[in-house]
Amino acid sequence: MAKKVLLVGCGNMGFAMLQGWLALQPSPEITVVEPAAPLRQRISDLAVSALASADDLAADYWPDIVVLAVKPQMFAGVLPDYARFAGPSTLFVSIAAGVTTATIAGLTRADAAIVRCMPNTPAAIGHGVMALYANGQVSAEQAEAAATLLAACGTVVAIEDEALMDAVTAVSGSGPAYVFHFIEALSEAARKVGLPDDLADLMALKTVEGAARLAATSDDAPGTLREKVTSPGGTTAAALGVLMGEGALSTLLGDAVEAARDRSVELGKSE
Ligand SMILES: NC(=O)C1=CN([C@@H]2O[C@H](COP(=O)(O)OP(=O)(O)OC[C@H]3O[C@@H](n4cnc5c(N)ncnc54)[C@H](OP(=O)(O)O)[C@@H]3O)[C@@H](O)[C@H]2O)C=CC1
Ligand SMILES: O=C(O)[C@@H]1CCC=N1
């Protein structure tokens, strides 16, 4: 029987996941609660039911899975509207940065079955990577249902230690933004050395896309692939002298990921 999935919040990440779910066969029965009218319109355009508030759910509606995709700061205000569903028959899946399963249980029911998931926006095209942590109340059947739902959005990785979710958030949850910024920065650098705007954008994007695809499909490690680009005394060596000199890029990325990890921990404490 098709699962009933209730998606609460359909902004950037919720909508990305919804798009991934549309490829599922058999398709789940999806209902979305999203207060913003323009966002509801784009959900309706996909022939998915979109409601403005939890009050609009039918009295006899009962979901198998509730996916919480609102901002971490909204959990305390939003969860009481859905707490009635908490219990053995309904799985809560939260994609919020920082918010722990203990916090969600505190806002719903002590024995709520909860999966924490950290997705990323490439989920929209089935190329996300999703880490999952299940609390002790999640049944094997519920864990499988969550994995099936999320696999429609990309690669699913189970995690045993919830504390790792903050680091995962900093690497893969926020990570697409780092890569998009790298594309922006490469394009800007291309302009500075004289390429016209459209050529700069195309070269930057296609270089990142091609390199990522090669890294994903090659038997070589990324470091070996880098060495294969780098002719001794050539152009790449000149550039890497800047990027890798005194670990410049590694230090910068290390600091960036630490800042994101620390913010995730903070968001968890503020709930
Ligand atoms: N963006 C990303 O790449 C990722 C985000 N996440 C997590 O996903 C969650 C959502 O982030 P993101 O999509 O970026 O944020 P958005 O602000 O884009 O989406 C949240 C949506 O929830 C809506 N909302 C507000 N109140 C309610 C309510 N009571 N019921 C239902 N919906 C409501 C908001 O509407 P309105 O704007 O009108 O308030 C908004 O459209 C966060 O917890 C974040 O940590 C996780 C991984 C990646
Ligand atoms: O920026 C954020 O807080 C969310 C979590 C991971 C990606 N976006």
From TrEMBL:
Homology family? Belongs to the pyrroline-5-carboxylate reductase family.
The annotated pathway is: Amino-acid biosynthesis; L-proline biosynthesis; L-proline from L-glutamate 5-semialdehyde: step 1/1
Q: Which NCBIfam families match?
A: proC
Sorted UniProt keywords: Amino-acid biosynthesis, Cytoplasm, NADP, Oxidoreductase, Proline biosynthesis
Q: Which InterPro entries match?
A: 6-PGluconate_DH-like_C_sf (IPR008927), NAD(P)-bd_dom_sf (IPR036291), P5C_Rdtase_cat_N (IPR028939), P5CR_dimer (IPR029036), Pyrroline-COOH_reductase (IPR000304)
Q: Gene behind this chain?
A: proC
Q: Name one GO molecular function term.
A: pyrroline-5-carboxylate reductase activity
Q: Which residues form the Pyrroline-5-carboxylate reductase catalytic N-terminal domain?
A: 5-98
Tell me the organism.
Answer: Rhodobium gokarnense
Does Cytoplasm count among this protein's keywords? yes
Q: Per the record's keyword annotation, is Oxidoreductase included, yes or no?
A: yes
Q: Which Pfam families match?
A: F420_oxidored (PF03807), P5CR_dimer (PF14748)
Q: Provide the primary localization.
A: cytoplasm
Described function = Catalyzes the reduction of 1-pyrroline-5-carboxylate (PCA) to L-proline.
Compartments where found: Cytoplasm
Q: What is this protein called?
A: Pyrroline-5-carboxylate reductase
| E.C. numbers | 1.5.1.2
Record-annotated Pyrroline-5-carboxylate reductase dimerisation domain positions? 162-267
Catalysed conversion reaction? L-proline + NADP(+) = (S)-1-pyrroline-5-carboxylate + NADPH + 2 H(+); L-proline + NAD(+) = (S)-1-pyrroline-5-carboxylate + NADH + 2 H(+)
Enzyme class, top EC level, equals oxidoreductase
